[in-house]
Amino acid sequence: MIISTAGRPHGTGTRVNWPTKRNDSVFRHSVGSTFSAIISAAFYSSLLIAATPSPAHAAEINLLGPASFRILFPKLLTEFEKSSGNNVTAGYAPLGVITERVIKGEPVDVAIVSGKQNEELQKQGKLLAGSRVEIAQVGFTVFIKKGAAKPDLSSADALKRALLAAESIAVGDPARGGGASLYTIGLMKRLGISEEVKAKSRLEPSGTEIAEAVAKGEAELGIGVASDLSLVAGIESVALPAEVQNYSLYVAGIIADTKQVDAAKELTAFLTSPAVNQALTDNGFEPR
């Protein structure tokens, strides 16, 4: 068959070979195979997408935690993000500061404070009812610079003598409301030496900074949480006598007006998982 082409002499043209039956069959088979392959690929791609957390639907969770968790939590929260598909922005501060920030209405989804502070926030309606999750507790200790002579702290009386004899003592700043500061205030009152040690007390913003002050030689003794021993190099600890020992309890709660309730519940559940409990134990905490 000849089809005329403009610009060519009459009687010449381009020959078109129309498909034969055999060629037509091959053509249809090829198209059919290609179409099936495309459909199959699209199907499996949709399964893969469905099984993968979508960043577009990831929840953004704001967490406030105690300063003593600032070294431990980043790695753990990364694991949570991978398993849940959600994103966590964490901030760390002394417990009293966290409590104040929640009271003032800072946009937070989960806050970790002490047991008593959690109860107070519940009473004020700042936390979602029934969202209390106890994470861990940690005891207190006396820090000394590594290699220094260890004081006798075998009894309350021995502890009293050691504190009176020390040239300087690093303690938590009461204005920050941290667990270490609250414990130390009560301890000094119980021992009856509040006024005697006031002049030689060095106030530090957090428990970790208490340990750091001792490591740097800026204070002879420090009273802080035992978990900070694993965070700060160059220090040792001497156990407090059982009769004056106490524990700082860390409790998570979900903020009442959060828009991320389900994601926040996932996070607080994760914070009591076996993996987190093991990490807490390895760093001097006692999981609850």
Shape: elongated
Give helix and strand order, one letter per element, not per position: EEHEHEHEHEHEHHEHEEEHHE
Q: Number of helix segments?
A: 10
Please summarize the sheet with the most strands. Answer: 10 strands, mixed
Highest CATH level, the class of the largest domain: Alpha Beta
Strand content: 15-25%
Radius of gyration: 33 Å
Low-pLDDT segments, ≥5 res: 1-54
- The fourth-level CATH homologous superfamily of the largest domain is Periplasmic binding protein-like II
State the domain count: 3
Notes on the structure:
The chain has helices at 21-51, 73-84, 95-103, 115-123, 156-165, 179-191, 194-198, 207-215, 261-270, 274-282; strands at 2-4, 13-15, 60-66, 87-93, 110-114, 133-145, 169-172, 201-204, 221-225, 235-239, 247-254, 286-287. By secondary structure, the chain is α/β, with parallel strands linked by helices. It has 3 domains: 2-51; 58-136 and 249-287, Periplasmic binding protein-like II (D-Maltodextrin-Binding Protein, domain 2, 3-Layer(aba) Sandwich), CATH 3.40.190; 138-247, 3-Layer(aba) Sandwich (D-Maltodextrin-Binding Protein, domain 2). It starts with a strand and ends with a strand. Mean pLDDT is 83; it is low at 1-54. The chain is 41% helix and 23% strand. Strands 3, 4, 5, 6, 7, 8, 9, 10, 11 and 12 form a 10-stranded mixed β-sheet that branches. It has 10 helices and 12 strands. It comes from Bradyrhizobium hipponense. InterPro entries: ModA, ModA/WtpA.
Based on the model shown, name its key terms.
288 residues; alpha/beta; D-Maltodextrin-Binding Protein, domain 2; ten-stranded mixed β-sheet; two-stranded antiparallel sheet; 12 strands; 41% helix; ModA/WtpA; molybdate ion binding; signal; Molybdate ABC transporter substrate-binding protein
